[in-house]
Design a protein that fits this description.
It is a single chain. By secondary structure, the chain is mainly alpha-helical. It folds into two domains: 2-81, no CATH class; 95-223, Non-ribosomal Peptide Synthetase Peptidyl Carrier Protein, Chain A (Orthogonal Bundle). It contains eleven helices and four strands; from the N terminus they run αββαβαβαααααααα. It has helices spanning 2-13, 35-46, 54-67, 77-81, 95-101, 106-125, 145-159, 167-170, 174-184, 201-209, 213-223; strands spanning 21-22, 26-27, 52-53, 72-73. The protein has a two-stranded parallel ribbon. The chain has a two-stranded parallel ribbon with strand order 2-3. Helix 2 links the parallel strand 2 (26-27) and strand 3. The longest helix is centred in the middle third of the chain and has 20 residues, at 106-125. The two termini are 16 Å apart.
Length: 224
């Protein structure tokens, strides 16, 4: 996108016509019309970013071509305005973690955390918790790389933790992911420092080989 913005500016400086537009998702056309695109649009909506229908988008394009400000951007304001506000105070205690830590014994904390992870996985997958198998890899249940990154981000916000974007690759099931969070959130009766993770190189290579170009780019962007 930055390259296209620069190219448009260069062409305009040379007296040639050019317009670079940063679009929000279009509804009902192209990738957005596929099942994967629909899931991506739902993920954008949960993050507070809206979408636009093709007729309205083309009308806006006519206006932008007439005005020709560079670069241009299109966002759906109501969805952005309705996005939930998050606390900006890093020192404030995380309410969800406080609720979990108030449970006793540790087995109750682990069960509650497992339900939370299961519920969040179901939201991202667009299904119900009853249809998600906690012991089956999420990728086998329809979760692509974009959805995996969204799940990690949702859990990190809910629990006030810093999680690696690749957490769902190394801990591919709800149960495994819950165990990781249980340790990182120090919910055990005798908290221990998380052990250094040793990646299974062969397994990671198989996962990467199975990614589409779009999924690989999304995962790389999340790692930046």
């Amino acid at each position: 996108n930055a390259f296209l913005d620069a190219l448009a500016l260069t062409r305009r400086a040379q007296g040639s016509p050019a317009l670079s537009v940063g679009w929000c998702p279009w509804l009902g056309t192209g990738l957005a019309a596929t099942s994967g695109g629909e899931r991506a649009i739902q993920a954008f909506a949960r993050a507070g970013a809206g979408s636009i229908d093709a007729e309205r988008a083309l009308a806006l394009l006519d206006l932008m071509m007439a005005d020709a400000e560079l670069p241009a951007a299109v966002a759906v304001a109501p969805a952005i305005e309705e996005a939930p506000e998050e606390s900006t105070d890093p020192a404030s205690p995380n309410p969800r973690l406080l609720e979990l830590r108030a449970l006793s014994p540790a087995t109750r904390r682990k069960a509650a955390l497992g339900r939370l992870v299961l519920d969040e996985a179901a939201v991202v997958l667009g299904t119900t918790a009853a249809r998600v198998d906690p012991q089956r890899p999420l990728r086998d249940q329809g979760m692509d790389s974009l959805m995996a990154v969204e799940l990690v981000e949702r859990l990190a916000r809910l629990l006030g933790l810093t999680l690696e974007p690749t957490s769902t690759w190394r801990h591919p099931t709800v149960q495994a992911l819950s165990e990781l969070l249980f340790v990182q959130a120090e919910l055990d009766d005798e908290p221990k420092a998380p052990e250094t993770e040793t990646a299974d190189t062969d397994a990671l290579e198989r996962l990467v080989d199975g990614l589409s170009d779009e999924e690989a780019q999304a995962l790389l962007a999340a790692l930046d």
